[in-house]
Amino acid sequence: MKREGASGDAIVEALIANSSTFGNKTVFSQEKYKLKKQKKYAPKVLLRRPSTRSICETYFKKYPARIGFMRVDTLSLLLSMANVGAYSDVLAVDMVGGLVVGAVAERLGGTGYVCSTYLGSAPSSIDIIRMYNLNSEMTSRIFQAPLSDLCSLKTSGDAPGSIQGDEPGVVPDESFQSSLEKPSDTEVSDGNAQSTTAQPIDIEAPEPATDEHLNQGDISMPDCKGSNGNSIAPKAPRAGKAPSPERMKYWGEHGFSSLIVAAPGHEVESVVADLLPLLSYSAPFAIYHQYLQPLATCMHSLQVSKMAIGLQITEPWLREYQVLPSRSHPHMQMNAFGGYILSGIRVHNDTVCVAA
After folding, report:
1. Helices 147-156 and 245-254, interaxial angle, to 10°?
2. H helix or E strand, kind and range, residue 259
3. pLDDT in tens, 149-161
4. What is the distance between the terminal CA atoms of the chain, rounded to a whole angstrom?
5. Strand partners, 105
6. Which of 38, 109, 328, 340 is the most buried (most CB within 10 A)?
């Protein structure tokens, strides 16, 4: 019947008509038989927009090792405990194929920045980001930088979050810059004595906004036209490009507002010791690992060094239910393990400053 071009519904009806036991089945068994045959001979495809939940669930069912056996509830807890929100500067160590970086970029919604750092000279793979179908605004705010370059900012400049008058972790945009420039022009035209004190604000504000214009230059590209006059779509910016010197300088002075670590194959204690100084003070962090012992060792190290407070290790737990009329119950086969998360808040350590 398939070779003759019969539809899937026709094949299912023919199978039911030729079945000698279909009439003796119960109503539930008949529905089960129909669904089984429709799945084989009349499959249906539903197109949906990709999201963090769907991508994480798909990889967890088919290729769990590629994402470090990270469940969807674990990923949501990572974003929540790291306080990832609009206009945030998020530092991420993503060794799970780019799932964490893509989830952060999706939550930022084209407002903040996410920097994926890596150990060594070769960047880690973030190919899963392509499945998110992010727009140009979101893609242009995803950067990749080696950990050695970020640590050099810490040693060359001041400690992150030590500059007064600027709120750490907030990236000025064009609207923020224009709101600063307008009062300064008014004060200069009035000739008040405060114009000299307001002048440095007008100079310092465009510093982080310089990279804002550079990024927008990659987004708002002019329409190109071919030889026949038809418009050609501009090439989308590549995710994971190197950050500009202005952006690196801003991160070195103000620090990152959040930290997420998902590196199951690396030693957590040494990685976190290098990453925490890059955060601004009172910045939250969340660390994922498949096993408990590496996080317990890292937690003890942070308690001894007094670099963080509010330390806790959380074990996510998820139960999925089947909800049908008169047949609502938990699924018979569930994954009882979702890894562990170490969370805390970075604080200023006076002992380290006195010793230095």
Report:
1. 60
2. strand 258-262
3. 888 876 655 445 4
4. 81
5. none
6. 340
